[in-house]
From TrEMBL:
Classification via SUPFAM superfamilies: RmlC-like cupins
Protein name stated in the entry: Sugar 3,4-ketoisomerase QdtA cupin domain-containing protein
Source organism (scientific name): Parablautia intestinalis
InterPro entries attached to this UniProt entry: QdtA_cupin_dom (IPR008894), RmlC-like_jellyroll (IPR014710), RmlC_Cupin_sf (IPR011051)
Sugar 3,4-ketoisomerase QdtA cupin domain residues: 5-100
């Protein structure tokens, strides 16, 4: 993955970050210090991953809904993206996201 953008999330114990999906951006989240939880969701399932060790990370492909929360007071989360920021590719409404993933999902017909 070629990295075009990066930023750090620092000291946000009471905040929820993310709460969106991206049409084309992929992300790698790396825990630098402290801890944080990442909830990822697609059409079929949801998982919560606790990043609580230095250098522990998670790859998040496009079209997954993501929330980052429960940051410790010393949390530093490094976020890497394969795309430059483009507000038009963000889906910030959860209901809209669910409608899109249901519509774009193709089912295999069984005989």
């Amino acid at each position: 993955m070629k990295i075009y953008e990066h930023y750090k999330i620092i000291e946000l114990p009471e905040m929820i970050r993310g709460s969106h999906a991206n049409r084309k951006s992929e992300f790698v989240l790396i825990n630098v210090a402290g801890s944080a939880k990442v909830k990822i969701e697609d059409r079929f399932s949801m998982a919560v991953i606790e990043l609580n060790k230095p250098r522990m990370g998670i790859y998040i492909p496009s079209m997954l809904w993501k929330d980052m929360y429960d940051f410790s007071k010393d949390a530093v989360l490094l976020v890497l993206s394969n795309e430059h920021y483009d507000a038009d590719e963000y889906i910030r409404d959860y209901k809209e996201y669910k409608e899109i993933v249901v519509k774009e999902c193709t089912f295999i017909k069984r005989k």
